[in-house]
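GOLI4 protein
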Amino acid sequence: LSASLVVYEHRSRLERSLQKERGEHKKTKEDFLVYKLEAQEALNKEKQDSMNRYGALSSQHKILKNQHEDVKKQLLDLQLQHNSLKLEHRKTLETHSQKYAQLQQEKDSEVTNLQDTVFKLREESKLLRKAHQEVHSQLLNAQAQMEEFRQLKEALQKMPSFK
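Tokens:
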């Protein structure tokens, strides 16, 4: 009986110890489930936040990509416009250079013609002065001859035999 009582007491202690272990195990299991649930919620929240950030970054990426494409297109358009304007500038410059060369040639030709004209006019002026001088000399000679004739005429008129 004494041995039975010891076994019973020992068994009773073991059952209480087992009960206690089961209680602690149950509490630990509950704590673990709470922890697991909280961790799952935190993970889900983190996942949701990450998905939101990813969505925002993705839409921002699309916007920036579209802007990049627009800027590339604008750059291409501006490069084409620049090349067109460059070509137009080159053509205009060539046209102006040709026109300038033509005008320079015309000016040089006109200057040469004017110099020739001035030279001819000077020569003509010399000839006219010389002719004027000769005419003036002839006129003086003629006046002198007329004066001489007039004197002769008066002298003849004064002569009684001529009358």
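The helical segments are 2-158.
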